[in-house]
Amino acid sequence: MLTLLAACASDPPPVALTEVPIEHAPIVLVTLDTTRADRIGAYGHVAARTPNLDALAARGTRFSSAWAPVPLTIPSHSTILTGLLPPRHGVRDNGDHRLSEDATTLAEHFAADGRRTAASVGAFVTQSHWGFGQGFDVYDESLHVASESLSWHVERPANEVVAAADTSADFLWVHLFDAHAPYLPDPAFEDPYDAEIHRLDVALGVLLSTLPADATVVVVGDHGEGFGEGGEDAHGLLLEDGVLRVPLIVAGPGVPVGVVERPVSLADISPTILRLAGLPAPGDLDGRDLFDESERIGVYSETRYGHHHFGWTPLERLTADSSKLVRGARLEGDETLLAELDRLSSLPPAFAAAEATLDPSTVEQLQALGYLSEGGSGAHSGIDPRDGIEQIAKLAALRELPPAEALEAMAVLLAENPGWRDLRMRRGLSLARLGRTDEALAELTDAYRDGPGSTTAVTIGELWLRQGDPAEALGWFLEALTIDPRSATARAGQAQCLAMSGQLDAAQAVIDEGLAETPDHADLLLAGAVLALATHQGEEDWIEAVEDIVARRPTQARLNHVLGSLHLRAGHPEEAEQAFEQELRMQPGNVAARLDLVRLYQEQGRLVDVVKALRPLVALQPEEPVWQAMTASAYLEMGRAGLAKEHLLACAGHPACPE
């Protein structure tokens, strides 16, 4: 029987749903990123030092069997804030979609009733960019970096998040990220993960001490961590207990004291908070009140991570009182749950999903950190993630190989696993870094055909810009904007292409519109600099701004090229040369930057340097007559007709070939 079990013999008897009083006092939702239930003292972890969580559980209701809908932050929070399961809200993975504006969040329900709402969040994954800011009067998301520099590893510690929280709000959401890897060691703890959870608990204690006495508090983990269960060290790929079972505690006036042992879903949080706040819950929510003890077959969880990134089968799970069923390429568990799993996994979308875009520099950064890029869709290979998990070690090993060996290893893995879109994306970026841009474009274009996405389209557009082809690049940036109209990076690329093509007024309009929304976005500022180069106006005025962007994003392609062009226009040839050379050290395949450096050498009469700068182009594209003609001309000017001969033969018949 589904009951509220008394914590001890002296506790009051189980309280029925109808007996839990409705309160109009403030409600505080605290989400703990990557926090397993079995690492909390109240959940039985002897080594835990979580006195504040334990005390909260002792004065409220602790749900011992709470299950995340997805073992990933963005989709899980989408469920927490809407009461909808992933098939309904459409956010199935980190980074591929944002919560649609058509969704109605908890904050929007409070705001519609005239109540004040506030949020303070601790990481990139809960930024308003992902759609979580809807309905909040105050959304404190400062991570002390420029908007375009946000990425998965950028966070602020729990104490700073709590210090920024507006505790006077009627509805307050606080997101604490500390328990996410990497874990900071602490000599007082044998396990650094326990140390991170202790830090969360300390910050929670500070928050609780500042809340009104009548506040109702809901604390929940968004998902857990694998620590080797099923072969997964982190989270996202599998549906083992460790990545799905999370702490969930509700405490406040009228909330009964005890433990609920029946399975509950994080989709149940939204309708519970609405009822406790005296607000009506929409009838189409997938969750139910946490205190509703009516019969339930089980709670639903899923992951599309393996499907999106490797072409493997999706994984789905139904967790019941004493059994579970997991479905991928095969069924594992209690097959009497299959009909309910079928029903929940096939729920129709509540609204159209909203795609999100990552800029190319962020994609490269995430891949360097071991994360993967944009997900795809379509048919799967039939490989079950539970069987494919061993392949992940091969991906990790790629990071330890020299670039050329890594490319060979990627080719072998792709031959074995043709559905790995992420690996094709990684290989394309690696080819681009090595200057093999034509091969990179072919690889990435194939990846896009297999699974169109705005991030891939933007990356291809950036490569065409490096090739000096704004017309081709523009088509890809427009393609990205068709998929994700809010992408500032795609908008900036569009503006650069327009400026380079002479459509200056149109470029300025795009830049102005973008900067009005994100005034510090590096790509939009870069587009402004490109426009200044196109109009021959104010180039020197842009140098400081672009130098600042280079300092913020030192490895981003094309930044040093634009900086060099600005210096050249401003009459600073030495600085221009340094910037061009820095660009080519990082991006040897940037043809436009190499040609600008060649022109600089030509203007200075440095013919030997002209030949040296052209040599990589001749080696990579010996069939291109322009490079051969430029090399031949330089040798002839030096009086080295013998060295020019082979290049003259290679460019014969081309208009640029010297006679």
Helix/strand layout:
Layout: E1 4-5, E2 27-32, H1 51-58, E3 61-63, E4 66-67, H2 73-82, H3 86-89, E5 97-98, H4 106-112, E6 117-120, E7 138-140, H5 158-164, E8 171-176, H6 192-210, E9 216-221, H7 241-244, E10 245-246, E11 248-251, E12 258-260, E13 264-265, H8 269-276, E14 299-303, H9 305-310, E15 315-319, E16 324-327, E17 331-333, H10 338-345, E18 354-355, H11 360-368, H12 385-388, H13 391-398, H14 403-416, H15 421-433, H16 437-450, H17 454-466, H18 470-483, H19 488-500, H20 504-517, H21 522-535, H22 539-552, H23 559-569, H24 573-586, H25 591-603, H26 607-620, H27 625-637, H28 641-651
Parallel strand pairs: 2-8, 2-9, 3-12, 4-13, 6-7, 6-8
Antiparallel strand pairs: 1-12, 3-11, 4-10, 5-18, 9-11, 14-15, 15-16, 16-17
Write a compact overview of the structure shown.
The chain contains 28 helices and 18 strands. By secondary structure, it is α/β, with parallel strands linked by helices. Helix 20 runs antiparallel to helix 21.
Your description of this structure?
The structure is a single chain. The chain has 659 residues and is of the alpha/beta class. The protein folds into 2 domains: 4-298, Alkaline Phosphatase, subunit A, CATH 3.40.720; 357-551 and 570-592, Tetratricopeptide repeat domain (Serine Threonine Protein Phosphatase 5, Tetratricopeptide repeat), CATH 1.25.40.10. 46% of the residues lie in helices and 10% in strands. The chain is built from 28 helices and 18 strands. The strands form 4 sheets. The chain has a 9-stranded mixed β-sheet with strand order 1-12-3-11-9-2-8-6-7, sandwiched between helices. Strands 14-15-16-17 form a 4-stranded antiparallel β-sheet. Strand 15 (315-319) and strand 16 (324-327) form a beta hairpin. Helix 14 (403-416) packs antiparallel against helix 15 (421-433), helix 19 runs antiparallel to helix 20 and helix 25 packs antiparallel against helix 26 (607-620). The model is unreliable at 1-19, 146-151 and 365-373 (pLDDT under 50).
